[in-house]
Design brief:
It is a single chain. This protein has about 280 residues and is α/β, with parallel strands linked by helices. The protein has two domains: about 5-215, Alpha-Beta Complex (2-enoyl-CoA Hydratase, Chain A, domain 1), CATH 3.90.226.10; about 220-270. It has eleven helices and ten strands. It has a six-stranded mixed beta sheet with strand order 1-2-3-5-7-10, sandwiched between helices. Strands 4-6-8-9 form a four-stranded mixed beta sheet. Strand 2, helix 1 (about 30-45) and strand 3 (about 50-55) form a beta-alpha-beta unit.
Length: about 280
């Protein structure tokens, strides 16, 4: 696929997907959605990639859905056409091996084997916040701003936000952000647990890459994939089910090349050389 609204780059075993509509604060379009999904799935298939970083060009991460689409509906346009555009042909990309909950238009990030880091460099609003919520980790610049925005547009909590947000920041905090649709800064987002870390704007890109490089070089990619799957499947399991499935996964890991390498590099006091097998 030729990309027009994103940039895709792979270096140091890190795939970087950059939303690229900087003049619109990277407002989301159907085309952008298709390109992001294509790039994410390409990175997930690429054995040279071990970590995926999603970020935005310019001063914004993603300012939400392109307002021209919503304006068209308000002026009497078709709501079905708007819904179709926002879904951007998700069904064509369905991962049949993933649980149905993680096959949606935006909820597919947890079905990817590799960790996805949202590098939130600026505004993350509305649909832009939805995208960030489905990433595995969220790192924010000190200049990042967050808002659900929905209630101030006469809308509802879209695309599973009402399910995902309470699981990340708790029920009371989720209701606060969803009902008020107020804007909060990076420091409050960190205190609330909405983001994992906040980095200075001047060193933001390098700070994110430093963390991503650590995952790419110091951690077994097989372990990353297995643990990510455990965590997301655990959202729908009882403790007994999670424990039983972990026992089976542990037996499999003990037979892996990465387990042998994990012991070898520790005892030999050298950098690891994991294969993912």
């Amino acid at each position: 696929m030729n990309y027009h609204e994103i940039f895709y780059d792979v270096s140091e075993r890190i795939a970087t997907v950059t939303l690229y509509r900087p003049d619109k604060l990277n407002a989301w379009t159907a085309r952008m959605g298709r390109e992001v999904r294509h790039a994410m799935e390409a990175a997930d298939r690429d054995d040279e990639v071990r970590v995926i970083v999603l970020t935005g060009a310019g001063k914004g991460f993603c300012a939400g859905a392109d307002m021209s689409l919503l304006t068209g509906v308000a002026d009497g346009g078709s709501t079905s056409e708007a819904a179709q555009a926002l879904r951007h042909e998700a069904a064509a990309h369905t991962n049949e091996q993933a649980p149905p909950d993680f096959q949606g238009t935006y909820s597919y990030f947890p079905s990817l084997r590799k960790p996805v880091i949202a590098a939130i460099n600026g505004h993350s609003v509305g649909l832009g916040l939805v995208i960030a919520l489905y990433c595995d980790l969220r790192f924010a610049s000190t200049e990042a701003k967050f808002s659900t925005a929905f209630a101030r547009r006469g809308l509802i909590a879209e695309f599973g936000t009402a399910w995902m947000l309470p699981r990340l920041i708790g029920l009371s905090n989720a209701l606060d952000l969803l009902l008020s649709a107020r804007t909060l800064g990076a420091a409050e987002a960190l205190r609330m647990g909405l983001v994992n870390r906040v980095f200075p704007v001047d060193s933001f890109v390098e700070d994110v890459r430093t963390y991503a490089r650590e995952l790419a070089t110091q951690v077994s990619p097989r372990s990353l994939a297995a643990i990510k799957q455990q965590v997301y499947r655990g959202l729908f399991q009882t403790l007994q089910e999670a424990t039983e499935s972990a026992e089976q996964a542990m037996l499999e890991s003990l037979q892996s090349e990465d387990f042998k390498e994990g012991l070898a590099h520790f005892y030999e006091k050298r950098a690891p050389s994991f294969t993912g097998r």
